Amino acid sequence: QVQLVESGGGLVQPGGSLRLSCAASGSLFSINAMGWYRQAPGKERELVATITRGGTTNYADSVKGRFTISRDNAKNTVYLQMNSLKSEDTAIYYCNAFSPVYGKNFWGKGTLVTVSS
Questions:
Q1: Reduced to 3 states, what is the DSSP secondary structure of residue 73?
Q2: Is the CA virtual torsion 27, 76, 4, 68 positive or negative?
Q3: Is residue 111 a contact partner of residue 20, using CB atoms and an 8 Å limit?
Q4: For 10, phi and psi rounded to 5 degrees?
Q5: How far is it between the farthest Cα atoms of the chain?
Q6: CB 78 within 8 A of CB 51
Q7: How far from the centroid of its chain's Cα atoms is residue 5's Cα?
Q8: CA-to-CA distance for 15 and 51, rounded, in angstroms?
Q9: CA of 29: how far to CAs of 3, 25, 37, 43, 48, in Å?
Q10: How confident is the model at residue 74, as a pLDDT?
Q11: Is 48 helix (H, G, I), strand (E, B) or coil?
Q12: pLDDT, tens digit, for every residue of 7-47?
């Protein structure tokens, strides 16, 4: 199994920045990609950014140029640096890991990001 724990959420003003962290544990060698998703009230969960084991990144158009996903393999941690935050970025952010060995996705419990003046 894989366990994911998010941290770093909080309240920030529009235009501000936050960095989210996702610490992974368990069967780490089974993971070939990780990512961040978010869900706002009344909306479906949507993909924000992904990073593969090879380092390839992908972003939703709504965050491209503002958010950066990165990893620290030594710390088994994936980060999401969020800059120029907007009110519409307000959501619960979830960490995700895909394991082809298990044939499933693993999810964290989420961390709340609130962008408000």
A1: helix
A2: negative
A3: yes
A4: 165, -165
A5: 45
A6: yes
A7: 11
A8: 25
A9: 13, 10, 22, 33, 23
A10: 86
A11: strand
A12: 999 999 999 999 999 999 998 888 989 999 999 999 999 99
